[in-house]
Amino acid sequence: MSRPPFLTLPPCARAHRLSTPRGEFAVHDAQPSSPPRGTVLLVPGFTGSKEDFIALLEPLAAAGYRAVAVDGRGQHESEGPRDEAAYALGELAGDVRAQAEALGGGVHLLGHSLGGLISRAAVLEDASPFRSLTIMSCGPAAICAAQQERTRRLVAALGAYDMGTVWLEMRRADGESAPAAPVPPELDAFLRRRWMGTVPEQLTATGRQLTAEPDRTAELAAVPLPKHVISGAVDYAWPVPSIDAMAKELSAVRTVVEGAEHSPNAERPGPTAEALVRFWDLS
């Protein structure tokens, strides 16, 4: 679960709802002070939200890019139905294309973790709304075996218990397996609020997708878009060597953010933003 380093939007950004033919989506929208050099759509991962990109908004806007981070359907502040079929990969990919078109098309698309799989599916179906694709902290297929088992347990718990009970059990298990530094009270409250605001069927459907996604790297390599693969130096969900191999097969620009793990957007936002801007400037 990504943890944003802070929660206050920078002065260049505002929260609003992006209207599309497929519904409204909660976004954080950062605008540069002069006409933008391009627009970036930021798609979060499993159990995540638009807040995961909050530390990137100001540096991207300062570099001249409009940056729009979105809650997908059923995520945090975007509504979604209580129906697993609504969260099939093709449905979520269709939402991403609709969001890109609502932003005027020609957007630089970035997907983090599960968002990388959703963004890949969006591009494979129709790449026309996009100017480039960045896959962040996401590998070529399903998550690693250990994370598959963990995710299957979560999906089973979601089918048996209410969201509040599952949250408490997750926190207990996390504390036993890897005791972490204390989380500031305001961030702790946000993480729980985000979890409780996410539709359980969204988590169940996307959790299953993470454990079963096939390798579609060869298909993506044939799509004539500039591609960028970026990750931390360590990743618990996909082994970094598998991310390296995927980038090579895609002929993608490859960036490893030293000192970061699964969420370089939150853990090392400065160097992450610099790498993204370098790529987009050339795309």
UniProtKB/TrEMBL annotation:
<dbReference type="InterPro" id="IPR000073">
    <property type="entry name" value="AB_hydrolase_1"/>
</dbReference>
<feature type="domain" description="AB hydrolase-1">
    <location>
        <begin position="40"/>
        <end position="275"/>
    </location>
</feature>
<dbReference type="GO" id="GO:0016020">
    <property type="term" value="C:membrane"/>
</dbReference>
<dbReference type="Pfam" id="PF12697">
    <property type="entry name" value="Abhydrolase_6"/>
</dbReference>
<keyword id="KW-0378">Hydrolase</keyword>
<dbReference type="GO" id="GO:0016787">
    <property type="term" value="F:hydrolase activity"/>
</dbReference>
<protein>
    <submittedName>
        <fullName>Alpha/beta hydrolase</fullName>
    </submittedName>
</protein>
<dbReference type="InterPro" id="IPR029058">
    <property type="entry name" value="AB_hydrolase_fold"/>
</dbReference>
<dbReference type="InterPro" id="IPR050266">
    <property type="entry name" value="AB_hydrolase_sf"/>
</dbReference>
